[in-house]
Write a structure and sequence with these properties.
Chain A: Pfam families: SoxG. The complex is a heterodimer of chains A (183) and B (1000). By secondary structure, chain A is of the alpha+beta class. Chain A folds into 2 domains: 93 residues, 2-Layer Sandwich (Gyrase A, domain 2), CATH 3.30.1360.120; 75 residues, Heterotetrameric sarcosine oxidase (Alpha-Beta Plaits), CATH 3.30.70. Helix content of chain A is 21%, strand content 38%. In chain A, strand 10 and strand 11 form a beta hairpin. The longest helix of chain A is centred in the C-terminal third of the chain and has 17 residues. The radius of gyration of chain A is 17 Å and the shape is elongated. Chain A starts with 10 loop residues before the first strand and ends with a helix. With 1000 residues, chain B is α+β, with helices and mostly antiparallel strands. Chain B has 6 domains: 108 residues, Ubiquitin-like (UB roll) (Roll), CATH 3.10.20; 201 residues, FAD/NAD(P)-binding domain; 124 residues, FAD/NAD(P)-binding domain (3-Layer(bba) Sandwich); 123 residues, Probable tRNA modification gtpase trme, domain 1 (Gyrase A, domain 2, 2-Layer Sandwich); 91 residues, Aminomethyltransferase beta-barrel domains (Alpha-Beta Plaits, 2-Layer Sandwich); 138 residues, Probable tRNA modification gtpase trme, domain 1 (Gyrase A, domain 2). Classes of the chains: A alpha+beta (183), B alpha+beta (1000).
Chain lengths: 183, 1000
């Protein structure tokens, strides 16, 4: 059976010339919720325009954001940037009703890349990968588990997975790596 | 060289021999053979025994519709028990080196089978035999009839070892899925691919090509069929078409979701162990083209199941695709032109055609001319009244029919009979879509009519005949699918020479001279259903085809009546004196062909069977030898046994240590929801029974959540972190449900509230410290918070650092002891746990699990939702009336609580129970008031929780009892299997009723 690292330490888990799966180091991560009228002021604080189309992304420096729902964004940042974001968004409290919740420890990120990365995802992902444009992301399901899948390039993907779901997801991805390597 | 192999013929590789064994005897076949074709090449037709009568049987087809030649195979290099597969169709099993095949349903041997005694008693085993025989006496059912039926039921032997192979699954999205790789499917794929669409073409066979594989003499656009096929397959690949041979479309589900099973390794002698054996594809196709072709029907005559009797088209396939003559001397029996070409093909390679027997009086001149030229005797307007031979057909009796009268018979010696009753479109997948059929009176068959799915039917699957017609229709349907997707393409047509089109008539069972009750004219070969059985069913009152099917089991075998349904319908309709469409056709259901459980399970077996969630502290518990239990999706440490301890002693020690010193508990699995926004308190006021608006931002409160019906759904401690921010905890198993319920109310009832809910269960690792020394253990690590009882009393919460980690620290207790819950970001959970564990050694710390947690909370009368409640318990019933905010105008469930039946005093109420003899009650045991009343006794409640209490030195229990609050001090009785226990009703708080231990 697959040995999935129990401790979930960042690093490469499987690598072949056409496919690599790695667990990424933890990053800062926030759920930002607010009403549509708050998008502009919140964007000013964060340094980019909040995208309003679901799945659309924006980035500025090391910060990036994806719109996951009509009133929901996921903000990813460097660990050191967390306090800055919290303080910045807190200045909106009086004017923009919102919720900012730190999720930096809720999820882990798995990177899947290589010419067969998209094929690997079809083992557990019911969606059509071609329907997810490069530079967008989707909250979706992988092997029965809620994930956010980011398409960073034609053959480069990221999966945000809840911490306790990660061994299950990694187990299937690594089984898939062996299956793909065999033919 | 095998006697029946035709050198140079077929698509098999004559240069590559493949060794295999059948019933222990070594055989040699060729690369490209199936088990059936390889055995036929050696003149072996006998491959199995039939299900009911144990009649000798050989292959009657060359494809997946095969009802007879079902064998047991052992796959893989080790051929272990777990790799045994019963009921493999020999006609589909590709030959591979070392394959071990065994015949079934015979003892002691295939040639001599004791079970064949059934055949002699066939008149005693009519349709409905079981229904009639196993009725009386009733007492025989359990001991005699059921075991007998079970022993007789089922064909083949199930392996009793786990399957060591792996199975895989994938999702696939495609614009056009073409099912069937014959001429219609190829043309459809070409048209759709040329329109620039994503196209997938699947075929169940080892090769793409369908009927073209059996028709090498056809010339398409001036190119011989097989050259054209190779070019076409290459062209499709170049156009980017995903070509999937060995892949069966097993089911057509809603909204163009099609299930495919790909056989990945079964045909390989030494498969790579990393490869799955089979792969299930879940395909979402924007358009589907069904080009499944047609299946040949047998003719129904006495003795039509003898080995050597097979479908003419299949004999043609064995010859042209596999290079195998199915016999030396053949008689062709047909009601359709297509069998004539089988006769001509076989004659050309030296099989003598003793006669072509056609039921029709009028025949095509060109066919007659060709037969004449080949010197083949033609018997027109004839019937067949019997066959002879024990393990192989040796002769056939044919009789002229004139004006409905059967004349004298004539025996013709032969070693094979090639029959054709015409062709039936393959409707199975179309039928899965709940598509409507229409009756084609001329062809005496059902054709696809309309379906709500985005689906086209092409070629023989909608009754078209001939390769040219199939190509043209495939191309048109491919173009139609493309057009439906907004692409434009011109349908092509192809010029086909030597296309052998034809027609025929559909027949009920052939006329005979014999008494019908003595004939054995099989309709369903796999379930041994004869024409006589179908007529008997009608005589006995079955009117609907659905009843006839169930009474006779016609079409109920694993082949799902691929060969028998239409013949069965024609005979039943004839017996009923009604037109066939009024009698109707039974429904085809997925899967199209038998499918392995492995393929359906895919990756979800063993460790990957289901998701198991583990906390960050779980690895520590595992290293400590904890015993785990599942709670919802989580696994939790149940207790931490020291060497030599069983659960009771471990739990007793953990309880004692926690009450006397300090215990550590991993509470990370508790559901956590962060509720944030200006209306956060207003939202909680509406959801929970308790009041929230006045809770100070550094305090916690126990929250009780009801359903609209007023019954307890969940509970948990809720901390107010700031004016607009709450940290809600839920039960471990209730987390997702509670969040969904809250979102439901927020989005549908109160969308105007400015509040948002976020699951933070996994953001935080939670360590509970309980016991009189909890503060002493924790205090040295805390910075930024004064833990003295005055500054940080029971139900306080604060933000601080613990051992340098940012923490949300609460003073709460689920044990009745001084307690703290430390929430730290999940990444630090394990490290903090180990730091506290180390420091705790000086305080005599223990780690405790869920079992000790249950005991400690029960001693205090704290409920567990779902254990002490069952969805019918109100807050008052549970003694939690104090948790209701009396002044609140509303909360979920409030109105239900004032319904009259919610207020009656005889409701079941949660009470304590103390047994008189100090024995421990069984959880779930029923409670009665009077133990001497007659059985069935009136039950007034049940035990919900029961433990041995170390602190009290006796067992304690909680129970729901009718009118329990009014029975304090009463004796009730708990009847057990061997004795009846008496127990006294008490309050639910057994220990420290004043709560002094909490306040330390």
């Amino acid at each position: 059976m697959t040995v999935v690292p129990h401790e979930l330490v960042a690093g490469v888990l499987s690598e072949t010339p056409d496919l690599s799966v790695s667990l990424m180091p933890l990053r800062g991560r926030f759920s930002l919720r607010l009403m549509p009228e708050g998008t502009d002021p919140a964007g000013e604080v964060l340094g980019f325009r909040l995208p309003t189309r679901i799945g659309a992304r924006q980035a500025a420096g090391s910060r990036e954001v994806v719109c996951l729902g009509p009133d929901e964004w996921l903000v990813v940042c460097d660990d050191a940037d967390r306090a800055v974001i919290e303080q910045g968004v807190a200045t909106l409290a009086a004017s923009v009703p919102h919720a900012l919740v730190d999720l930096s420890d809720r999820e882990l990120t798995v990177m899947v890349s290589g010419s067969r990365a998209t094929e690997l995802l079809t083992l557990g992902w019911p969606r059509d990968p071609q329907s997810v444009a490069v530079g967008t992301a989707r909250r979706t399901v992988f092997d029965g588990v809620t994930v956010v899948i980011w398409r960073d390039g034609e053959t480069q993907w990221r999966l945000d997975v809840w911490r306790s779901f990660a061994p299950h997801v990694l187990d299937l991805l690594l089984t898939g790596c062996r299956e793909l390597a065999a033919g | 060289m095998s006697a029946f192999r035709v050198h140079g013929k077929g698509r098999v590789n004559h240069g590559r021999k493949v060794g295999f064994r059948f019933d222990g005897t070594p055989f040699e076949g060729l690369e490209g053979d199936t088990v059936a074709s390889a055995l036929l090449a050696h003149g072996v037709h006998l491959m199995g025994r039939s299900f009911k009568y144990h009649r000798p049987r050989g292959p009657v087809t060359a494809g997946s519709e095969e009802p007879n030649a079902l064998i047991e195979t052992r796959r893989g290099i080790d051929r272990s028990e777990g790799r045994v597969e019963p009921n493999t169709r020999a006609t589909m099993a590709e030959l591979r080196e070392g394959l071990e095949a065994v015949s079934q349903n015979r003892w002691p041997s295939l040639g001599f089978d004791v079970g064949a005694v059934n055949d002699g008693f066939h008149k005693l085993l009519p349709a409905g035999f079981y229904y009639k025989t196993f009725m009386w006496p009733k007492s025989f059912w359990d001991k005699v009839y059921e075991p007998f039926i079970r022993a007789a039921a089922g064909l083949g032997r199930s392996p009793d070892a786990p399957d060591p192979d792996s199975y895989a699954s994938r999702y696939l999205h495609t614009d056009v899925l073409v099912v069937g790789g014959g001429p219609a499917g190829l043309a459809a794929a070409r048209a759709a691919a040329e329109a620039g669409l994503r196209v997938t073409l699947v075929d169940e066979s080892s090769e793409i090509g369908g009927s073209l594989l059996s028709e090498p003499d056809v010339v398409i656009d001036g190119t011989p069929a097989w050259d054209w096929l190779a070019g076409e397959v290459a062209a499709l690949a170049a156009l980017g078409v995903k070509l999937m041979p060995r892949t069966t479309a097993i089911g057509y589900y809603h909204q163009n979701m099609i299930g495919l099973v790909e056989r990945v390794t079964d045909h390989l002698a030494e498969p790579d162990p990393a490869l799955p054996r089979e792969r299930l594809w879940r395909v979402r196709a924007r358009q589907v083209v069904l080009a499944q072709g047609a299946l040949e029907k047998p003719l129904i005559f006495d003795g039509n199941d003898r080995p050597g009797v097979m479908l003419a088209g299949s004999a043609q396939t064995y010859l042209n695709r596999y290079g195998v003559r199915v016999g030396q001397t053949a008689v062709v029996v047909t009601s359709h032109d297509s069998a004539w070409s089988a006769a001509f093909d076989l004659a050309a390679v030296g099989t003598s055609i003793a006669a072509i027997v056609d039921t029709r009086a009028e025949l095509r001149e060109d066919l007659l001319g060709r037969a004449h030229a080949l010197g083949i005797e033609v018997l027109r307007g004839h019937t067949v009244t019997g066959t002879a031979g024990r393990l192989r057909v040796s002769a056939i009796t044919v009789n002229p029919v004139q004006s409905g009268a059967v004349g004298a018979g004539r025996n013709i010696a032969c070693d094979c009979v090639l029959m054709s009753g015409g062709w039936t479109p393959t409707l199975h997948l179309f039928s899965h879509t709940q598509g409507k059929l229409e009756w084609d009176e001329e062809g005496k068959t059902f054709l696809p009519f309309e379906t709500r799915e985005d689906c086209q039917i092409a070629g023989a699957g909608r009754g078209l005949w001939g390769i040219e017609a199939a190509l043209a229709d495939g191309s048109a349907m491919g173009a139609r699918a493309a057009e439906a997707l907004g692409a434009r393409v011109l349908a092509r047509s192809h010029a086909v020479e030597r296309d052998r089109t034809g027609s025929g008539v559909a027949k009920k069972e052939l006329p005979t001279l014999k008494d019908l009750t003595s004939t054995r004219a099989f309709v369903d070969f796999q379930n041994d259903v004869t024409a006589k059985d179908l007529r008997l069913a009608v005589r006995e009152g079955m009117r609907s085809i659905e009843h006839v099917k169930r009474y006779t089991t016609n079409g109920m075998a694993t082949d799902q009546g691929k060969m028998s349904n239409i013949n069965g319908l024609i005979i039943a309709a004839d017996a009923l004196g009604k037109p066939a469409p009024q009698v109707g056709l039974t429904t085809f259901r997925p899967p199209y062909t038998p499918t392995s459980f492995g393929a359906l399970c895919g990756y979800h077996r063993g460790d990957h069977f289901d998701l198991t969630r583990k906390t960050p502290i779980d690895p520590w518990a595992e290293a400590q030898g904890a015993v785990f239990e599942p709670v919802g999706q989580w696994r939790r440490a149940r207790y931490f046994p020291k060497p030599g301890e069983d659960m009771d002693t471990a739990v007793a020690r953990e309880c004692l240590t926690t009450r006397s010193a300090v215990g550590m508990f991993d509470a990370s699995t508790l559901g956590k929801i962060e509720i944030v926004g200006p209306d956060a308190a207003a939202f909680l006021e509406r959801m929970y029974t308790n009041p929230w608006s006045k809770l100070a931002p550094d305090r916690c409160r126990y929250g009780l959540l009801l359903g609209e019906d007023g019954f307890i759904r969940d509970d948990g401690v809720i901390a107010r972190l700031a004016q607009d921010r709450f940290h809600v905890t839920t039960t471990t198993g209730g987390a997702a449900r509670v969040l969904a319920m809250m979102e439901d109310y927020l989005q549908t009832e109160w969308p105007h509230l400015k509040v948002w809910l976020t699951s933070v269960t996994e953001q935080w690792a939670t360590i509970a410290l309980n016991g009189p020394k909890a503060r002493a253990l924790l205090e040295p690590f805390v910075e930024g918070l004064d833990l003295t009882p005055e500054a940080f009393p029971h139900m306080a919460n604060g933000t601080c650092t613990v051992a340098g980690f940012p923490a949300r620290l609460w003073r709460v207790s689920f044990t009745g002891e001084l307690g703290f819950e430390i929430n730290v970001p999940a990444r630090h959970g394990r490290e903090l746990w180990e730091i506290l564990w180390q420091a705790g050694q000086a305080h005599g710390v223990c780690a405790y699990g869920t079992e000790t947690m249950h005991v400690l909370r029960a001693e205090k009368g704290y409920i567990i939702v779902g254990q002490d409640t069952d969805g019918t318990v109100t807050p008052q019933d549970a003694g939690l009336g104090w948790a209701i905010g009396k002044a609140k105008p509303d909360f979920v469930g409030k109105r239900s609580l004032s319904r009259p039946d919610m207020l009656v005093e005889s409701r079941k109420q949660l009470v304590g129970l103390l047994t008189e003899d100090h024995s421990k009650l069984e959880e779930g045991a029923q409670i009665v008031l009077d133990p001497s009343q007659p059985i069935p006794m009136k039950m007034v409640g049940h035990v919900t929780s029961s433990y041995h209490s170390q602190a009290l030195g006796r067992p304690i229990a909680l129970a729901l009892v009718e009118g329990g609050f009014g029975r304090m001090g009463d004796l009730v009785h708990v009847p057990m299997e061997d004795r009846t226990l008496a127990a006294r009703i008490t309050g639910t708080v057994f220990l420290d009723p004043a709560g002094d231990r909490l306040k330390m």
